[in-house]
Amino acid sequence: MARVRKTVTIRDVAEDAGVSLQTVSRVVNGGPNVRPQLRDKVQAAIDRLGYVPSLAAQRMSGSRSYIILAINDRERTLADWRERRGTDWVDQMLLGGILTCSKHGYRMMVELVDTHSDHVERELGAALSALQPDGVILTPPHSENRLITALLAERKIPFARIGSNAPGPGIAMTMGDEGAAHLATSRLIELGHRRIAMIAGPAQYSLSGWRVSGWRRALAEAGLPHEGLLEAGDFGYESGTRAARALLTRNPDLTAIIASSDQMALAALEVTRDRGLAVPRDLSLISFDNTPIVRFSQPPLTAVDQPIAETVSRAVEQLIARGEERDDDAVIEVAAGLVERSSTAPAPGTA
Amino acid sequence: MARVRKTVTIRDVAEDAGVSLQTVSRVVNGGPNVRPQLRDKVQAAIDRLGYVPSLAAQRMSGSRSYIILAINDRERTLADWRERRGTDWVDQMLLGGILTCSKHGYRMMVELVDTHSDHVERELGAALSALQPDGVILTPPHSENRLITALLAERKIPFARIGSNAPGPGIAMTMGDEGAAHLATSRLIELGHRRIAMIAGPAQYSLSGWRVSGWRRALAEAGLPHEGLLEAGDFGYESGTRAARALLTRNPDLTAIIASSDQMALAALEVTRDRGLAVPRDLSLISFDNTPIVRFSQPPLTAVDQPIAETVSRAVEQLIARGEERDDDAVIEVAAGLVERSSTAPAPGTA
DNA sequence: ACCGAAATTGTGACCGTTCACAAATGGAAT
DNA sequence: ATTCCATTTGTGAACGGTCACAATTTCGGT
Predict the structure, then answer these.
(1) A57 reaches B (C-beta below 8 A)
(2) Residue B59, in any domain of the structure
(3) CB–CB of B204/B240 below 8 Å?
(4) Which of A53, A199, B243, B294 is a Cys-bridge partner for B199, taking CB atoms 3.0 to 4.6 Å apart?
(5) H/E segment holding residue A262
(6) Which residues pair with B174 in a beta bridge?
């Protein structure tokens, strides 16, 4: 353990090993064409001195910055968002990304930007100039923001759009919302349900639309109607209450509800309870997101599991790989799964 | 909106404004001794070109890095931790820190290190060399790790230890665990409870000890015994189940339990229900942490609210302020509060 | 032993910014 | 006007790396 007083630079290593700076640089970066013998000698010096290249200096001299920038919404992130969808989403996203970055020698930096369009361009532009990241990850609701994607495309920085199903500039990382909704709906149909309602998310998120599509497609495939079975919320609890009430009032024969967020599902659970209906005996319930909360409700909810951590992780890997490559757009799907708990059961009156 | 092709450097601005690099630098950094007229002219050029100084270059030339490094435990963070204490802790910490950093023109970077002591020094040392942060935030269980604090002290990097009550090197940011436990216990005593048990956290976290102390002190002040009323868990659900069972079996006259984590409190809730006891009619329950989960249990739990976001936020501000100052150690307390919900009530048989 | 190409190593310039210091300018006092 | 000092501006040298390219070594084939 060498005692480190001042920062150890590549020069110190070069001197210690009796070689040139360039050689040390080659060893550090695993460059080719270094004789094994010399490489070992230099490596020994590096270890002895505890040398670690300075990220700042590396970036200065034209190499990569080894930074992935994750763009999050400032307002929604902390207050709004956590109230509505549970905090888990942000958490998983961060940790999935950070973990994967660290695995590849990269670092993830979180940048919070305002939703207000004027500022977005400014703020993001400043962040890009200051940090010069090798890649950017866009999270909802910025995943499909034209101004942002245009800015990134112009600067030729590879970027991934999380939770966006639409092809377009950058890499779209979808969690297969259409398919997931289809899966959940199909499962309910399989259990004998015929009147299956959906509480959708707000239209501003395109995933809301995709989930509705998946639900509708599954119903259509089974020859079931969807009229009057759709209500929209804003992912939050109160909106779920409203939607559930409307649905149950309008459709007394309802036997299943799919909610586009855990909070809205919990609200629906509360509403059904108030009306004297038992879940899952009288009504089955499936939620989206599968945050930790739904494991502790009575009963625990069956939920569509959005593989957020894995999605972000894959996004990071894509960006890193795109480092030198051409920036071909793509849509990558990470499949969602259905975690069956106790809020789903065969439809009433079924064998 | 100037169209940005290549990165705008300080040179471009200097040229555009017809001044020297140094002058631009002065304007950017709010340096003294620049004539207002010139300053405006330069500022105009900066705005027009959309210039933002490169963090890397700034760091290179001896200025600060404007980076705060938050050290988290790799294993516990993702898997273990979230299972045991709910994911909220990490989330709040990150966002509290990130938000505050961004407010001051700093950025927060999360570094995950292994718990295994050999690696910690290496990993952290590498991170410090690579990033050269202006400050470091240590989170449990690293807040009191000797190797880490020694390393930071040696490198003279200001650092804050979150959730540590003990004075020592660096700034200790305590959330007043002793006081919080005392507060919760006192409230129960006030409600007429006489047999108040505690499910403590694992000994490896010093906050566990402090919470026990606060509980004990409150009991002592009221002349109540604490013998046989203490069980320890590991913050996780299962351990809470075990502890609650042991406590209830050993003390049939128990009327209140304080749990050192939300998960353990939920477990205790489940156990009391199994035994035919109603909360809060027969038994009052208070948990620690106040993660979103406890709002959705039946009944919603009264909980000690750990002001994590604020604590980290304050820590960041301390570190930034310490930038140039002397590194005097300190213990700063951010008081916890009690959020009363429906799991606490007057003791059975009380007026 | 000799030649040439391939493999290995070294050299200088440069990345974008700030630092210490030198130069120029301004204004008050003489 | 002149002198002098304080204020304002400019200059060259770092900072710690990498890049392009030049110099050197190695080695197979003759």
Answers:
(1) yes
(2) no
(3) no
(4) B243
(5) helix A262-274
(6) B333
The token pair at A60 is 């200065």
Does one domain contain both A157 and A115?
yes
Nearest of A274, A214, A207 to residue A241 by alpha carbon:
A274
Beta bridge partners of B75: none
Domain contains B61: no
CA distance B349 to chain A (A): 30
- The verdict on whether omega for the bond into residue B280 sits within 30 degrees of 0, i.e. cis, is yes
Find and list the nucleotides of strand C having atoms within 7 Å of a protein beta carbon. 7-20
Within an 8 Å CB–CB cutoff, is residue B108 touching chain A? Answer: yes
Same-domain status, B301 and B181: yes
What are A208's two structure tokens?
Answer: 């809301």
Q: Looking at the structure, do residues A76 and A166 belong to the same domain, yes or no?
A: yes
pLDDT of chain A, 351 residues: tens digit per residue? 444 457 899 999 999 999 999 999 999 988 778 888 889 999 999 999 999 999 999 999 878 899 999 998 877 655 544 444 455 667 778 778 988 998 898 999 988 888 777 778 888 999 999 999 999 999 887 888 888 999 998 888 999 999 888 888 889 999 889 999 999 999 999 999 999 999 999 998 888 999 999 999 999 999 999 999 999 999 888 999 999 999 999 999 999 999 999 989 999 999 999 999 999 999 999 999 888 778 778 899 999 998 888 999 999 999 998 765 556 788 899 999 999 999 999 999 875
Q: Which nucleotide is nearest to A14 (CA to C1')?
A: C10
In terms of domains, do B331 and B293 share one? no
Q: How many domains does chain B have?
A: 3
Chain B residue numbers with beta carbons less than 8 Å from the beta carbon of A109 are 107-109
CATH classification at residue A168: 3.40.50.2300
Whether residue B41 is found in the same domain as residue B118: no
Q: Are A318 and A334 in contact (CB under 8 A)?
A: no
Task: Examine the domain organization and report whether B186 and B294 are in the same domain.
Answer: yes
Residue A216 lies in a domain: yes
Give the domain range for residue A259. Answer: 177-305
* Residue B141, CB-side half-sphere exposure with 13 Å CA sphere: 19
**Does B204 lie in the same domain as B171?**
no
Alpha-carbon gap, residue B108 to A110, rounded angstroms: 8
| Residue A345 covered by a domain | no
Paired tokens of A190 = 């399989």
Instruction: Fill in the DSSP letter of residue A295.
Output: G
Residue nearest to nucleotide D10 (CA to C1'): B20
Whether residues A80 and A42 share a domain: the answer is: no
